[in-house]
Design goal:
eight-stranded mixed sheet; five-stranded antiparallel sheet; globular; 10 helices; single chain; Rossmann fold; SH3 type barrels; alpha/beta; 448 residues; 3 domains
């Protein structure tokens, strides 16, 4: 551990200076000087570099050469990571919030062997990184699973749902689900459809940057999500994430109207075809709208958790052949969601495949690959042809939400009539009654 990741000439330089990982050092050379703590180096890093954690909290790689001067400023032992114990005595004046751990960046550390981020935190670790949440509520932690969100499955959605139901029916004021951001929108939709008679808030939260990074959004996001679970009058599934690139507020997004719109920005999550439900500044909650289900002191959540996993989501491209749909049918897919062009169109080359799906009793749902707006298949002849073939309009649902919804509906019924009826029915806020003209590319900064 003393020389973790350092080999060859760099290791010899460190030994000559009596420096080990964890020590505070000074590196001088080429007219520059750096002071910081010597960090482990990844196996995949440049073998001529050493890594320093500066006082600012950021890491910097410094290339050593014969002209470089390395000096020991302070010998230190590597800090041991210890987890504060959760309070065993409940404060009767505080609400009770359960954090459900599933893995993801909000519960991750850096593996200094490879430089990769991996889901190593338990739910207790989540609490340990942001102990301020204990000032908001009595915190209980439960682990449903521990995976990166790209490995999430419908079976894991059900596991998460069961934990949420047990906690709310067991007396929790609200529940926070800590989740990786990549598929957070999918899980939010799944919970929105399968949690019936929900009477307390369920806030899903994650972070774009791992907890050990100075620019991490984990702390503000978690404090905001716990505030929603503890203090809001929501009785819905929401996603609570940064509302700007600063550490100033988080937005509360409806679980069926939210998408991750950027790979790395802290304000990556946006409500699509609607405005956010509200925002959290500090621990204060300000709701933007009135059309949400209100929380109540008592009730009983039911879990309607059967999903049909064999559903395809196909993005339409010019000249796409019917073999794309034929292949889904041959693979025994029980339903297909199309991410069509514009108002909900496909090329004529797909018509035979869609007709085959209808013949095989495989429901086909149409959404749009346009991020905003809704499908309208009555405008052009292609759309009208598709309606004649039995394609079900997806209104203004996000394609991924329509995919999750079709999986859920197929888990409840096999009736084509009932499937079409439920797909066009607003079950959990996934369909808006009209297209709002004021939400297209709406900047969140105007919501401050």
């Amino acid at each position: 551990m003393a020389m973790q990741g350092y080999r060859g000439s760099v290791q010899r330089i460190l030994r000559a200076a009596s420096v080990k990982v964890g020590d505070r050092v000074k590196v001088e050379g080429r007219g520059r000087s750096y002071e910081g703590v010597l960090m482990p180096r990844t196996d995949l890093g440049n073998p001529k570099n050493l890594v320093l954690k500066l006082d600012s909290g950021y890491n910097v790689g410094v290339q050593l050469s014969s002209e470089t001067k390395l000096s020991l400023l302070e010998s230190r032992e590597l800090p041991a990571f210890s987890i504060p114990k959760l309070g065993l005595k409940l404060d009767q004046a505080k609400p009770n919030v359960t954090i459900v751990g599933t893995g993801g960046t909000i519960a991750s550390r850096v593996d200094y062997r490879t430089g990769a981020v991996y889901p190593a935190f338990t739910p207790e670790d989540i609490y340990a990184t942001v102990p301020e949440i204990a000032e908001i509520a009595n915190i209980k932690v439960v682990e449903a699973c521990n995976v990166f969100s790209e490995h999430m499955t419908s079976e894991l959605w059900v596991k998460i749902g069961k934990v949420v139901v047990n906690e709310i029916n067991g007396g929790a004021t609200g529940v926070v689900v800590a989740h990786g951001t990549d598929t957070m929108g999918y899980t939010a939709a799944a919970l929105s459809f399968m949690l019936k008679d929900l009477f307390r808030p369920v806030a899903i939260v994650g972070s774009q940057r791992s907890s050990d990074r100075p620019s991490s959004d984990a702390a503000l996001n978690l404090i905001s999500a716990v505030s929603v679970a503890a203090k809001s009058d929501l009785a819905e599934v929401s996603v609570v994430m940064h509302g700007s690139i600063e550490d100033d507020f988080c937005l509360i997004h409806r679980g069926t109207k939210v998408r991750k719109c950027h790979t790395s920005r802290r304000d990556a999550f946006q409500s699509v075809n609607d405005i956010p439900m509200g925002k959290v500044e500090g621990t204060e909650i300000n709701m933007f709208r009135e059309d949400y289900n209100r929380a109540c002191p008592t009730g009983k959540v039911k879990l309607q958790a059967k999903f049909e996993p064999l559903v395809a989501l196909l993005k339409i491209t010019p000249g796409m052949p019917s073999s794309a749909i034929n292949g889904a049918i041959a693979a025994k897919d029980k339903g297909i969601v199309l991410e069509g062009t514009g108002l909900g169109h496909v090329p004529e080359s797909l018509f035979d495949g869609i007709k085959l799906a209808a013949k095989k009793n495989v429901p086909v749902v149409m959404t749009s690959q346009c991020q905003w707006g809704r499908v309208d298949m009555n405008v052009y002849s292609t759309g009208r042809d598709l309606l004649e073939f039995g394609v079900i309009p997806g209104e203004d649902m996000l394609p991924e939400v329509a995919w999750v919804k079709l999986m859920w509906i197929l888990g409840q019924t096999k009736s084509r009539r009932k499937i079409a009826q439920l797909m066009q029915q607003n079950l959990a806020g996934e369909i808006t009654s009209r297209t709002r003209p004021d939400v297209f590319l709406k900047t969140v900064f105007s919501l401050k």
